[in-house]
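ERR on first pass: missing label on line 2. Operator R.T. fixed the label and resubmitted. Corrected input:
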Amino acid sequence: MAPRFELLKTDPTGARLGRLETPHGVIDTPAFMPVGTAASVKGLTQEMLLQLGVQVLLANTYHLYLRPGHERVRRLGGLHRFMSWPRAILTDSGGYQVFSMAGLREISDEGVRFRSHLDGAEHFFTPELAVEVQWALGADVAMVLDECIEYPASHEHARQAMRRTFEWARRSKQAFALRGDPGRQMQFAIVQGGVYADLRRQSADQMVELDFPGYAIGGLAVGEPRALTLDIAAEAAARLPAGRPRYLMGVGKPEDLPDYVAAGVDMMDCVLPTRNGRNGCLFTRYGRLLIKNAAYADDERPIDPTCACPVCRRYSRAYLRHLYLANELLAPVLNTCHNVYFYLDTMRQIRDAIRSGTLEVFRSDLQARHQAGHP
RNA sequence: GGACGGGUGGGUGAGUGGCUAAAACCAGCAGACUGUAAAUCUGCCGCUCCUUGCGGGCUACGGAGGUUCGAAUCCUCCCCCGUCCA
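pass 2 clean. output:
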């Protein structure tokens, strides 16, 4: 299979410009992927996502396995058809749920025993099952099951999780090979190792040895200081082959995105634009804006006067504040729309900056704006 | 005119002698949120003072007075509101 990732340019900062081909269209990288855990980016319709220019979104293997069930999705023609999404989908494996549902699961080398948060039923998740589910869903990019650990964690604990994640990656690759149609789906490995640089290097080397079409860096942004996130991400990224896409999982704040890109990351995803939008936190070039603040009660300006999104073109802060306080359904919709646009637009600007060799300028401008705050 | 029931902090509404500046919820104010168990969660929410502390002072449960070491809670009178009987 010919490599589908094309590296167009590498910036002196380490930032990369590229494109990833999938059965459902091209992903221009560096890319931001909105999170649609349950086959829905909360608050937005697929039509809105298309209009915003989303090229790829995330869905979650574990959640869709529980509900509506991967076999049902398969019968209904696969996830793209089921949710009427024509572009690319990357499914997370359920490894994050190992972390986030720590109270509801028991982990062993064989796999993870989950107690469903929906009905309490037990489910045994294995690397092989994660492959099977993602195959049934028909994701363009499938992630291997990994063990995402908490922060802080001891070196020994991180080493164990790294070891297990490697073993699972090996099994995942084997299970994936049995499917026999690598043109339909790409499988990405996940580097673990906590915040320990030696483990990260080791984990990356191991995964590269197994040879995957793409590599993710997982287990970060789980509570550690941001500088550490960046250091470890860069440490891991540096070990990964230049010709393969690199996906930093679960990041980040908008002002940090260019830093991750400069660390050599090609893909990112994060719930911040969607979740924070629902919670009234709007991202702008000048930093966060909490729309419920009394200061905006009579403010006729848009969220961000320099933003070209459908929300900023039409609605005032005063109105958006009213919607939020009144608990109107439009509030999360409009807030999420703005935030997702903002993330995508930031990535667009980052790609432009790499192309024109001005990423450093972009970064310092961004930093200056954030320090200055809202005008 | 009579018989019951009721008047509590911005709202609804607990609380029947001290642990009560007074539950809970709502509203309001502020903050958090990083591969989504999140349209969620946290803090503040009578006034005031400062050496910001499980700190001091003041005011407060319709009104006035009383009983008591101590009252939103008990007693008396009055004023409102609701229901029913005349």
